Amino acid sequence: MSSYRKDQQLHASSSEPLEVVIIGNGPSGICLSYLLSGYTPYVKPNAIHPHPLLQRKLSEAPGVSILDQDLEYLSEGLEGRSQSPVALLFDALLRPDTDLGGNMESVLTWKHQMERAIPHVVLGRNPPGGAWHSIEGSMVTLSQGQWMGLPDLQVKDWMRRKRRGLRNSRATAGDIAHYYRDYVTKKGLGYNFVSGAVVTAVEWGTPEPSSSRAQDPSPLFQVSGFLTTEDQSQQPFSLCAHNVVLATGTSDSPARLGIPGEMLPFIHHELSALEAATRAGTVTPDSDPVLIIGAGLSAADAVLFARHYNIPVIHAFRRTVDDPGLVFNQLPKMLYPEYHKVHQMMREQSILSPSPYEGYRSLPEHQLLLFKEDRQAVFRDPTGFQKVFGISLVLVLIGSHPDLSFLPGAGADLAMDPNQPLSAKRNPIDVEPFTYQSTQQEGLYAVGPLAGDNFVRFVQGGALAVASSLLGKEARKPP
């Protein structure tokens, strides 16, 4: 954001290490920067939390910041839609009765205490907001708009000031990307943020016994990369830090099928390819069908986009339509009518039946075998027979993997199961539940999807845990 920040922090390595480098400037990184900038949460003096056990615990330490309390003790006994106790705690403090359909105000008040600030820098490829700037702006968010907000600036209040409205309690991706960017500005965090920064290596070693921090066993981290300047040139940088926080999300590297022909030029792994083809007129209502692979929300978004422009679709997926693991079977119909419409189409339309939905064909339980250069896709159906379809363009939307190629061994040793690929849903980075510090490496933290928290609503608990841990380290330093 600030040219001063770039000039001072990202040129040649400074002799004095930074306390914290945060890699990733999405909601997790923004929330953590807010907490490390001296913004401190306290319980409002007269607030009564609707959860009786939590209310009793909060009343035991009046006037003590949440960051200075025992997060494990406070979060004990909370239940909700996250596996992380700290995520449930921070969510309960920010949105006390939201799961009951209520709109009770947060029980927290925020004080800006600069003496508690910890020097840090936030590195990101995009403007603040991270991958939200890469999502088609008119797409409506999966979560309710109020759940997309960060501390002390509610989305609905921001939308009201922008004279925008929430659609069915939900916001567009474009609004949310703008909100995150605005949040950084309004909270005065811009000095900590550097956009256009690509990290290429993070290395660590053990401090020298003679160093001034000999009493502190934590290693020093070397963070290297390059900065894309306004004239598109690339300037290398190298930073030294006592702590590194991984907040890069998981949208960097789309998952692939691993079948013959997947590298052909008409095979794509992001929805933007269909948007571009539609704008260019290379895909039209008269084209061969677009093949969409996947049964998640990205695939559903692609189906909705194609239907909007009357582009014919073949929609293939390996599961049955009634598989309880399908995300559609977990979403309330009233809040997500468009996704349930796609699910209904998936269920009612099979290639073998007359088409109730013109221009849409569903291929449940089909395995894609290969793509041919003449734009044909070969499938195996549930009975074992092969089928061939002519297509104009293919979107493979079967999820994504985090790109941690800048870490030693691409971060494989940090996962819960080091023998399996790192995955936000199935095999996240193994972190301590109340600090979010890696169980394998002192001083290395992970937040957001990398630590298994996949919704903006819950990633903020990880930021709270990291901030609490880092503040504890500061307090333990010798004077």
pLDDT below 50 for ≥5 consecutive residues: which ranges? 1-8, 210-214
Sheet having the most strands: 7 strands, mixed
What gyration radius follows from the Cα positions, in whole Å? 24 Å
Mean pLDDT: 83
What structural category arises from helix and sheet content? alpha/beta
How far apart the termini lie comes to 33 Å
What would you call the shape?
A: globular
- H/E series: HEHEHHHEEHHEEEEEEHEHEHEEEEEEEH
Q: What is the total tally of β strands?
A: 19
Question: Percentage of helical residues?
Answer: 10-25%
What percent strand? 15-25%
Continuous helix count = 11
Describe the protein's architecture and organization:
The structure is a single chain. The chain is globular and about 75 Å long. With 479 residues, the protein is of the alpha/beta class. Helix content is 24%, strand content 20%. The strands form five sheets. Strands 1, 4, 5, 6, 7, 8 and 19 form a seven-stranded mixed beta sheet that branches. The chain has a five-stranded parallel beta sheet with strand order 10-17-11-12-13, covered by helices on one side. The protein has a three-stranded antiparallel beta sheet with strand order 14-15-16, with no helix packed on it. The longest helix is centred in the last third of the chain and has 21 residues, at 456-476. Helix 2 runs parallel beside helix 11 (456-476), helix 5 packs across helix 11 (456-476) and helix 9 packs across helix 10. The model is unreliable at 1-8 and 210-214 (pLDDT under 50).
